[in-house]
Structure formats: structure tokens, C-alpha cells
Amino acid sequence: MGKNKWRWGVILDAGSSGTRLHIYRWKDPEKALHSASQEEHGTLPRLMTEKKWTKKIRPGVSTFGDKASEVGPDHLEGLIEHALKYIPKDKVKDTPVFLMATAGMRLLPQIKQTALTREICSYLQQNTDFSLPDCGLHIQVIKGETEGLYGWIASNYLLGGFDNPDKHQHGKGHHTYGFLDMGGASAQIAFAPNMTEAEKHANDLKLLRLRTIDGSPSEYKVFTATWLGFGVNEARQHYVENLQELYTTGSSAEIPDPCLPKGLRTTLEGDVVEKASDLTLLGAGSFDECLRLTYPLLGKDKPCADHPCLLNGQHVPAIDFDVNHFIGVSEYYHTTHGVFGGKGDKAYDFATYQQRVRDFCSQDWDDILPGLEDRKKESRYKNAQEACFKASWMINVLHEGIGIPRIGLEKTPAANVSKEALEHAKQSGLLDAFQPVDKIDDIEVSWTLGKMVLYAAGQIPPKSGDDSLPVGFGSNMVGPTPPDFQFAGSSWRPHGTYPNGTHNDKWDLEAEDLLDKAKSKSTTGLIVFFLAFFLILYVFRKRDRRMRFYSKVITFFRGSGTRRPGSPRKVSGHRSSGGLSSLTNKLFGRPSATYERVLEEGEADQFELGDYDSDDERDREHEPDHSDGSDGASSSSSRFGRTSGLATPKVNVFEPTPSIASNIMSTSGSALNRSGLVVRTESRERLVPNLQMLNAGRRSRAGSPTRQKSPLMSPLQED
């Protein structure tokens, strides 16, 4: 279909370290359903994105807390201009724009959050044509639980847990994957507990409702939680504060840091320095000690008001690792695949990973520096100096905090899946309790994708026409729509109508399909035409090929294509000698303005044939000034005759006696041909008296080299 089949969406992920633009595209729901197979009717809308459709700028929106009026021109303008490069102009007004701020903004006081979100919404409404009908819905500081839920949607959407549950059975009727995310300021978890835990902790779950392209609702009950301050940057800050309390004395300005490589000296903020000044951190390079000092940051000693708890005394339903398999994004991926990642690593193996970290962190900083030259210049040093702390923190969160089994050391739970699915899952590591990922099928796993999937699903009309089951999420309560239900932000239009109220039924969609197919065929036909054209040019690039082809065409049109070389032209009263003229005569009759020359009885004896040269070009070269007639028509006729390979016959013209002339005249316009048939000759009365003039104007062909080859031919005698 044409470009009108696409819907677009823009979302800005306003994180703590920067803001990233994401653009997504999907088929119009009505057109997607029209072209979908029966199997695809139960799937969610297919969203697409490209690498060039994303862009990130630094620092984060939260840095404008004290200068809200500058956030538009100094921060958002470049992102909006980038989006407008790729979204068609006629689609901008129908394209929603969202800005969702996360942990960085959550740390700001509420009054600064409100000022920033209002300024952002005002800027976008006044300076863009994007769809932004509700500031409260489109410009938000979202909760960590909401961010985790969007990430859970994105992960299962890309892995196929929604569309093909039978291919992702983990046992116990479970087919979805858990989601782990860690940024700079916070960490999230989202998963669907097993049936036992779901019933036990029903009030702790979120009700998520989606809609497949055929309008059928699908519901999921998901637990989500967030730990603010558990991102790597915030955790590092708390860690340094603990070091200060542990090691600072009145006379020492240098604090040993086991999470830094040996010999590396930095400020408390992480800037590399050559000499100690004020308080500095000096790397000790002890990975085991780093693990021990980061463990207290988990808050495992905090009281748990609602058992069970994981981190910081926060309630989380028990995780059944037989069926709950988690993927980790953001820092979970970068920390395992950055400095310590091995080539070809597909799955996370705790024993292998921990050994790599231990080997790296025990090195001197001077020994590490030469190996950084092959890495990206802008991040190589920063990543290397922070690698040991991040690895230690992630290992503690995963295995001591969440309780994920240590793959490589502890027994991996068995999964109840088909043999084919098991083999595929083993190769990708998705049957492991934990697998870090960055992309799935070349699409980045980001919570922003989950938000847009929800929006696209909200555009689909309900199958029954009843919108009492809206798309969105809220508390897991009895009833169609919980009081705190957050709608997808999109609306559906009844099947068969456009915004202007015009009708669009099945026939319109089929007509549009036919038009697109016709355009496709037209394009294909044009390509074929040009290929054929250039092929003909290639074949006839040589002159001799062109002349042979020209000769055959002329022969066909003159009707001599069936004669053998050297044989006389066959003439009869009502029959042409073949070719195109025969066909036209049969269809339209003989033209009245033409005539045929009639051979009377005995007249054929007066024709003599000489030898001929088959090369048309040689014939012309030797007798350029000779022709069979004095006028242009005669000349043209003679030239056509020569192209057939026959020499022009020599005619002995005679003077008719009066008796012969009277016999000819008495036929009243008719004459007998050699077969005895009557041939109509409408212009005979005019031709007979001037028969003696047939020789007038003819030139002798005695000088022709071709004619002189035959001893039977003699030059015409001129009167």
C-alpha cells in the first residue's frame, strides 16, 4: 500500500545522563488487519524503527531544574529537528509526541519537576505540529514501576512471548520473560509470577490489557518494582561516602579504593589526577574486597514489612526460577559485554565472568592503559576505571539481591519446552535464569518501545465494538476499568470511517491494494522495458547486423519474404505474394488507387534474368546513379527490389498492333491473366495508348557490373 498506510510515533526518553529520541512506525490497524493472514490476527501491531531514527544528547533534562525556560531551545530543539527529517510532512499532525522523564527527574523536588514538565509541554505545543492533546498524559515524570512495566512489554514483544506463547512455554503454563533494567540512578524489575504466587499476591500485581490486530483483548498480571538510588552512578556515590567514613583520618588525604585498578588515583567524583590533593582515591585493585564493600549497599539488613523482600526491605513476590527467566538491559548488558566481554559470548556464565573481572581488576593501571588504545576514544578510560565497581555491584544485585542462580556454579533449573524451542533457547541463552541483551532481531530493547506498543494497540478497534475493555494498565482489581487505570493515550476510530467522516469499507481497502499492485507492476514493466531497450542497442551496435535486420523487415512488408532467391515474383489477379500486404488485403480489401501489372500470354518470355549480387551495399556502391525509373517513386521501388537479392529484369518493350490494341480495349477494363482468370485493371484505357512510353525515361543498365555478368542480357536500345 502507499505511504498512507503508516502510523508514526515519537518518544523522548529523558534519563538522568541525557535525553534520547526514538521514532517508531507501524501499519494503520485497519489496513494491517486487511492484509494479515489468519495466524497473524492474534498478534500485536508490528512496530519498526531504524538506528538513524534515534539520537541522544547530553546532559539530562534534570539539569534544567533551575533554568526551565531554556530546556526547549537549548535541549529539545535539536531532537525535534532530527525527528522531522524522517517523518513525512503530511503525517506530523497525526504523530503523537511523548516525553517520559525517569530517575534523574524523580530526584528533583516536586516544584521543579512541575515547572519543567509545563515548560516542555508549552514549547512542544507552540513550536511543533505533533499531536499533543493532553500535557498530563504526554509529558510525564513516570514512576519506576511504570518504566519497568514498559520494559517488560518491550522484552516479551520482541521475544515473541505474546504472539507465540506455545513456542515459549517455560513450564507450569508460563510463557513470558522477566525484565531487569539498571540505569544511572535506579533499577527496575518486572515479571509475571507463577500461578501460586499470583494468587497469593494478587493485590501487588498490575493488570495490563493489550489488543491484537483483530480486536481481541489480552490480559496479563505483572509485578513491577523499582529501587531508586540503585543505579550504578547513585550506588557509586553511596559507596564513596562509606569509604570516607571508613578510612578518613585527620592526617590522611588519600583513601584506598579496592574497586579501582592498582595505582589509579582519582578525585571523589572520579576525575583522574596525578598527585593527591585534598581527598583522593587510590586504587588498590582487590576484587574480592570490592565485592565485600559493595554488598552492604543492597540493604539486605533493612526490615521487611511484607514478606518476601529482596533489596532495601522492599516486597517482591517469590521468584520461581524454574519458569521465570530474566533478560537484563542497559548496565546489565554494558557491564558484562564491555571491558569484560568475550568474542562470541551469547550467554552469561557467572564463573567465566567473575574470573575475567578478577584478572582485570588485579592489574596495575599502567599495564591496562596500553590495551585501551583499540577502544572508543571518548569512553575508553572512563569505562576502564569504573569497570571493577560496576561488575562488583551488578554481581551483588543479581545473585545476592535478586537471587538469580550462578550459572556455571549452581544447577540451572530445567525447562519444560519442546525440543525445537529448547535448542533455539539454548543457543540464545534464553532458558538461563539470566541473560543480558542489547538488541533482539536488531531492535534495541528499550522501555520506550513498550510504551509505543501500548499506544499502537490502543488504536485497534475492539472486536465486538465494545470499548469497555480499554488498552492500558492499572491496579489488579475486579471490574473492567480500575480507578487508577492509565489509558494507552490513543483512540480508535470505528471501522470504515476516516477523521472527516468519509466511509472506507472493504472495497476501498481492496481498491487501494490493487492500485499499489498496479504501481508496483508499472515500475517493474518500466524496468523491463529499459532492459530490453538496452539489450536491443547492444545487439544492433554493429552496422552489418542492423542492415540484415532492415533487409528482412523490408522484405516482409513488400511481401517477398516467401520467395526463394533468384525466382521471379509471382503475380496473380487477386493474390499478393505474402507478408503484411496479404493480411491487410484480406482484412480491408484492395485499395482502389493502386493497380497491378498484368502479364499477357507470351509476355513472360520477354523477361530475362541475369546474375545478382546478394550484397545490397555493393550494388549501391557500383551504381549510385542508376534506377529503374526516372522519378522518385521508381527509384524507391527499384531500391526495394534490390534489397531482396534479385536483379531487375530486362524488358523487351514492343509496339502493339492496332488489332492487339483493339482486343485489349474490348475487354472493357478486364484482361485474362496466364491462368485464364479475369483480372480487373481499372486504368487500362489510360495505360494501353501509352504503352510505347514505358521505355521513356529509362536509362541503360548496360554499364552495371551486375548486369554484365550475364551473357544473355543486352543493353536496352534507345529510340
Automatic annotation (TrEMBL):
InterPro entries: GDA1_CD39_NTPase. It comes from the Eukaryota. The active site is at 147 (proton acceptor). Residues 630-645 have a biased composition (Low complexity). The chain crosses the membrane at residues 523-540. Residues 617-629 have a biased composition (Basic and acidic residues). One of its GO terms (molecular function) is UDP phosphatase activity. ATP binds at residues 184-188. GO terms for cellular component: Golgi apparatus; membrane. Coiled coil: none annotated. Residues 561-587, 606-652, 690-719 are annotated as: Disordered. The keyword Membrane applies. Signal peptide: none annotated. GO terms for biological process: CTP metabolic process; UDP catabolic process. The keyword Transmembrane helix applies. Pfam families: GDA1_CD39 (PF01150). Gene3D superfamilies: 3.30.420.40, Exopolyphosphatase. Domain 2 (3.30.420.150). Keywords: ATP-binding, Hydrolase, Membrane, Nucleotide-binding, Transmembrane, Transmembrane helix. Residues 606-616 have a biased composition (Acidic residues). Belongs to the GDA1/CD39 NTPase family. This is Nucleoside phosphatase family-domain-containing protein.
